[in-house]
Amino acid sequence: MSWSKSDAEAYLAGTKSLDDLSTGIDDSQVDTSNNETSVEDAASSESVQPTADKPQETETSVEEKTASSDKVDNPEKIESDVKDTKKSKAFTPEEKTKHAFAKQKSKYIAKLEAKQKEIDALNEKLKKYEGLTLKHFHDDQEAYNDYKLDRRFDEEKVQRLQQELESEQAEFVNEESAENARAKLEACFPDEADQVKFQNLIQRAETSFDTMHPGIGCKTFTEFLLKEKDRSIISYLQDSDNAPKLIRHFIHKPEAAERIMRMNNPYNKMIELKQLENRMLLAERMKAKQAPVVEKKSLPNTGKVVTTAGQNTGERDWTKPISRREAEMLMQQHKY
Known about the structure:
The protein is about 65% helix and about 0% strand. It has about 325 residues and is mainly α.
């Protein structure tokens, strides 16, 4: 089928589609004398303005189609591509734990904020419609009863949400404290064996502290710390990065904690606890700097004379000149 110049221009302009041209034009009605001219015109106009109905297919699109078809037919290729494009970074167990806790913490905070926002909205509503009477409802008893029921329902809902919020906040604080305690434990005792040893010590102190120290009069270590009225030691341990080392020290030597408990001024208690912490850290650094002592091994006593270079073995040193007396003694010995 041949196109006229007008049909080509209409097709390029988008006013006619390919179907319209094929059905609306009879080949016999087209002037063949203008074939070459119309084709040349269409080609020239096509080079200036690309068609909207037939986008050009580039090499990149062909490659993408081929690659996509290969992936569909080959699941192993998809798996290998995922491994290549998403290379997982090697994280330490500590980093993984911190990342997991950070995600959980953000979820907790978002949940608590949403609940607090709902409580604030209900309180605002109760405050806005507080003190309404039957007159405000134009003596409509049914509407007034609905108002009182809705108000009672909102008050009970606020109370319930408030209890849930306080419970979730306490749970979040406990989990955050546990995470901080774990981080302090790993910082103070990097070796896993030392961590297990410390945890066993804590378990023993919380079950049989009276057996470890019969004169203290406390069944558990926690009970021992709670003897202090102002809770200065507990407060210091909550903030100190070296709390595990201080706890270990107080479990083994509770008299050190008792001496601080007997102080009257909380400020002096804090100073004493800080000085104790510094002394412990200094002792650890000094111990780490000390070179290991190598014991000198003594040779076993076999009854033989052990000589070294430069010592007199009783033999004649023939590199030195012989005296007259030595010569006479050798002559008599060998009967020269």
